[in-house]
Amino acid sequence: xxxxxxxxxxxxxxxxxxxxxxxxxxxxxxxxxxxxxxxxxxxxxxxxxxxxxxxxxxxxxxxxxxxxxxxxxxxxxxxxxxxxxxxxxxxxxxxxxxxxxxxxxxxxxxxxxxxxxxxxxxxxxxxxxxxxxxxxxxxxxxxxxxxxxxxxxxxxxxxxxxxxxxxxxxxxxxxxxxxxxxxxxxxxxxxxxxxxxxxxxxxxxxxxxxxxxxxxxxxxxxxxxxxxxxxxxxxxxxxxxxxxxxxxxxxxxxxxxxxxxxxxxxxxxxxxxxxxxxxxxxxxxxxxxxxxxxxxxxxxxxxxxxxxxxxxxxxxxxxxxxxxxxxxxxxxxxxxxxxxxxxxxxxxxxxxxxxxxxxxxxxxxxxxxxxxxxxxxxxxxxxxxxxxxxxxxxxxxxxxxxxxxxxxxxxxxxxxxxxxxxxxxxxxxxxxxxxxxxxxxxxxxxxxxxxxxxxxxxxxxxxxxxxxxxxxxxxxxxxxxxxxxxxxxxxxxxxxxxxxxxxxxxxxxxxxxxxxxxxxxxxxxxxxxxxxxxxxxxxxxxxxxxxxxxxxxxxxxxxxxxxxxxxxxxxxxxxxxxxxxxxxxxxxxxxxxxxxxxxxxxxxxxxxxxxxxxxxxxxxxxxxxxxxxxxxxxxxxxxxxxxxxxxxxxxxxxxxxxxxxxxxxxxxxxxxxxxxxxxxxxxxxxxxxxxxxxxxxxxxxxxxxxxxxxxxxxxxxxxxxxxxxxxxxxxxxxxxxxxxxxxxxxxxxxxxxxxxxxxxxxxxxxxxxxxxxxxxxxxxxxxxxxxxxxxxxxxxxxxxxxxxxxxxxxxxxxxxxxxxxxxxxxxxxxxxxxxxxxxxxxxxxxxxxxxxxxxxxxxxxxxxxxxxxxxxxxxxxxxxxxxxxxxxxxxxxxxxxxxxxxxxxxxxxxxxxxxxxxxxxxxxxxxxxxxxxxxxxxxxxxxxxxxxxxxxxxxxxxxxxxxxxxxxxxxxxxxxxxxxxxxxxxxxxxxxxxxxx
Length: 997
What we know:
Blueprint: E1 2-11, E2 14-21, H1 22-25, E3 30-34, H2 41-53, E4 80-87, E5 90-97, E6 100-103, E7 110-113, E8 116-123, E9 128-133, H3 136-147, H4 151-157, E10 159-161, H5 162-170, H6 173-184, H7 187-225, H8 241-306, H9 308-324, H10 328-353, H11 364-379, H12 382-420, H13 422-500, H14 502-507, H15 537-575, H16 580-601, H17 604-657, H18 663-708, H19 713-719, H20 723-747, H21 750-757, H22 763-826, H23 838-861, E11 866-871, E12 883-888, E13 893-896, H24 902-923, E14 931-935, H25 943-955, E15 962-966, H26 970-975, E16 979-983, E17 990-994
Parallel strand pairs: 3-15, 3-16, 10-14, 14-15
Antiparallel strand pairs: 1-2, 1-4, 4-5, 5-8, 6-7, 8-9, 11-12, 12-13, 16-17
Helix pairs in contact: 5-24, 6-23, 7-8, 7-22, 8-20, 8-21, 8-22, 9-19, 9-20, 10-18, 11-18, 12-17, 13-15, 13-16, 13-17, 23-24
């Protein structure tokens, strides 16, 4: 990589555009970048880094690039960095512009422009620049790929900061590891350590979980086995836990099976004893039952002997009842005939009571003849009755015609009265419709005018309000601008005071034996002192913050003023110059006219509906009048026909009615008389027939009683039993006979008689013996079941534990393997004798390469005295691998780099930086670095050593390199002719290039 040209504008301390021609500076090989403290030497290097990577080194990068802009730049000048370089045989031009808060093109205030980047490549054949990309991401990836280094590596390799490497020489192993890890990107090895540790923790957790589950099963087996199992004292994750648990489980299962065999034997013995006790109990119960049976039969026989007289009386009563059953049919026939005759006599008396006295002595034949005569007269009134019904229909029809005539007359009168005023009603309704239509048209026209008038009125009110706000905000803008200008002036004064006293501030950080951050010397003969009015960094930052806040308040007030003025212009454009009061009066009058027209137009629909209803009613009334006139003409002839038919029917009915009021009344009289006579004749014949049947039944009953052996029919009737009494008496006789047979059978049984002769049975003693035997069987069965369940539970839990142990075996092997690897990579394993971590091992190899490359230059700088070597020894209780020693050829001893003096430390750190640059370059793919910068530290060297160091740096030109030395040491200006000077001033810094070819 070779730098050709750098152009910077409004960047850092440079307020204007500045350019650096690196081609001219590189002609001499060595060039000096110098200037006063705070002038901006480092800012030149920051510009190179920003052009390549879009950011500056270390803590100077903040605020997304907003702090890169120069405070001395004009408001309209944009910050820009352009770098032209050759890398990988390609000539490129990179242009970057950080974010910029530029002034607005219209109005006051500022607007933020985004950061921009350009990448171009020079086409040698065409002689023109070709655009490659404008994407920040694409440009960053392209540059990183071409250089093969990250920003941190570039700042260490190309921009060599000697203070960092001096600290590197004196640092411990941990600090060196952090720096080398950033440069050589060994985080992947640290990630391997992390992944191995995570894998070890994960597998350890899984093994512990498996052992915990196994112990849980062991506790369950212990609960199932009772006292037959003892758990091991091992914790989850300890070796041998699975074997101990499985051994204890095997012992518990063997013990449980022995207990099950014993329980089986005890149950068999108990069951045999229970069978014998049950048999004895059955014999005792049978004896007790037979003895009780004999006693009960003997008691029943004695009781039957006491009740034998009642049994014989019941037998005699049953015999008389059987004889009386032969007379029962005759008795029933006589009772039925007597009841029938009684009913017939009552019916005859009731029927004769309804007849006139003239028929009191008439017999059945006379009553039947009178009924026939009344029926014949009733048949002759049938035609008269139909005529009477027709007369009633004629009268009703005549009344209906009269009602219709009166209704039609009312309809005609009402229709004539309404139709007379029809034309007036129609004219009035049509006038209402026309007026409402005119009002609707006016309302529509006024509605179109309302919205523009209201908008003008609102705009006028807004115009009046904003006019007052504009003056108020303009005063605020003026005051905010004055405050911002005063704050800026104060900040610039404070900054200038701090720059004038910066030497005292830097001197306050000096310590005896420590190199100066400016010149690198460890001797501080006359450090500057702070005066009474000294301004430190905090005071400057407070002044800057106060200025930024005041400027932000000024910009905010300007934005508010611009917004109010834009709103005022818009309101004035819409409202015009018309006063608000006049616009309000016009709008109110327009609103009143619109409301009145809207109210008048609302009557349009009701008026139309009312006219439609009136037209329908007109049509209905005209039709009703015509129909009424037609009905009146047709009623005249119909009325005459009805009157003639009525006169003929009245004459016929007068003859048929006779003394009755009507034909219907005469017919009703005849119908009733016929019915009464017919009923009386029937009841008389029935009474005569039933009297004869009663007489015949009395004769048959007397004959039947005599043949059955009874003196009178009444005696036979008394001997009869009804069904319920007969069944009860028969049940008593059957029960006596059954009881007598049963008692005799029991008293004749041989086994019952033998049992009665034996002593009384002891049933309670036999039941107690059987109960005790049953309880022993239940206890033995419970013990057998418990033992069987214990064996089943232990077998099930042992099978599950065996499966868990088998599943856990591969995981335990993996845990052992991963744990060994993780301990070895972390440096905690006994196999890792030097306790060196994996990342430290890789970094140690890199450090050994760096020490070898640095020794080549350190030998020349120290006249062959010093050599840098890498050491694997441990420092104290820490880990080994990143030790760095220097070998003194004069003494032949090896000592720590922290024992070097200030000058020795400088050229040792310079040699280390150059060696590191070579190793990192080779690591990045062998990208050639033709331009290097070395920052400070030369003030600590004597003349001879300085000459030797410059000779080493000058030897870098052998590979066509150019080296820029950043320093303010005066002796270097005399020794190095090619110079780039940074000159600071009140308006910003400037660059001056001297002695370049």
